[in-house]
């Protein structure tokens, strides 16, 4: 009888820990999605229209 009580107690604790883990994981996941949506409109993260950008300085001007 004592072994069954211990087993039930451990099972209940395992289920509690699993539920806390799932809640924390869900909050983290939706937090990341929320941050991602907020930063989509940030002008600093906009990409250029072309694949390459023109180099403004030559190598010699950077050295001297």
Automatic annotation (TrEMBL):
The chain crosses the membrane at residues 15-36. Keywords: Membrane, Transmembrane, Transmembrane helix. It holds the Pfam family DUF4227. The keyword Transmembrane helix applies. InterPro entries: DUF4227. It comes from the Bacteria. This is DUF4227 family protein. It comes from Salibacterium salarium.
């Amino acid at each position: 009888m004592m072994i069954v009580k211990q087993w039930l107690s451990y099972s209940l604790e395992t289920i509690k820990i699993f539920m806390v883990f799932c809640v924390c994981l869900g909050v983290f996941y939706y937090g990341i999605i929320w941050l991602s949506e907020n930063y989509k409109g940030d002008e600093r993260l906009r990409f250029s229209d072309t694949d390459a950008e023109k180099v403004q300085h030559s190598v010699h001007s950077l050295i001297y």
